[in-house]
Amino acid sequence: MTNPAIPSARTALALTIGLASTTFVFVVVNYLIYTVRWEFAVLNPAYMAEQPPTVSRAISDPSIGPSFAMWMVICGPLLVLGLSLQYHSYLGVLKRQDIATKAQVFGLSVLTVLALVFQVMASSGMVILSQFRFPNHNDMHMVGSYLFFFSQAFFTFTTFFVSRAYSKLAAQGGLLSARACRFRARLIWLPAFLSAFYLFLFVAKSYSFGTIDDALYQTYVTVELFLMSSFLIYMMAWAPDSVIAIRRYLASRST
């Protein structure tokens, strides 16, 4: 087994900025998607008496939507920046360590670029759905919503394959550990299950099932939040690799 790679100062800086950016987005977006519903409930008791709001409905309130939109304009691009810096660092060290074949490097490069393209699309969807809100911009809001959910799902599942490819090389060096890769291989089932369940509920809510309609809709709006959180959790499952690599660099500087 090859000793783990020690990142350069430039790589450690990129990982630090990337980790700080993604952690910021993780905290802010998770906080917002839950609190906007609570704020909407306080401001709109009559609506709440009929049914619980989705995030889309919650941000349609004029006192809630603009602030949410401002944070999405910040978080969308910041997420792309943070992930790009981290994935570029992982790939760059792999190339410099010369522990992968040209075919493996090419395959990982393609998967990494594809994942980041999906994230650009998802971040664009975040911005679009927050800027174009109900009730005046229904069509554009739905474009942003579909773009976000599908692209974020594709990003998540593409990074699963990125992680799996790295796991086959972890014993030979690089920045990613085999243990972290195995953890992500198990964790992927959380967003996978929630994505399938959410899609089922999204379709099912369009039909009437009698007495269970209210419970079905309540489940739908709840799973919506859990699904978005699961995407963010899987994204942050890469953080331990970055933290360990940064600590490895700092330790090398002190010896």
Automatic annotation (TrEMBL):
The chain crosses the membrane at residues 12-34, 68-85, 105-134, 146-166, 187-207, 219-239. Pfam families: Frag1. Residues 17-241 form the CWH43-like N-terminal domain. InterPro entries: CWH43_N (IPR019402). Keywords: Membrane, Transmembrane, Transmembrane helix. The keyword Amino-acid biosynthesis does not apply. This is Frag1/DRAM/Sfk1 family protein. It comes from Shimia abyssi. The lineage of its organism: Bacteria, Pseudomonadati, Pseudomonadota, Alphaproteobacteria, Rhodobacterales.
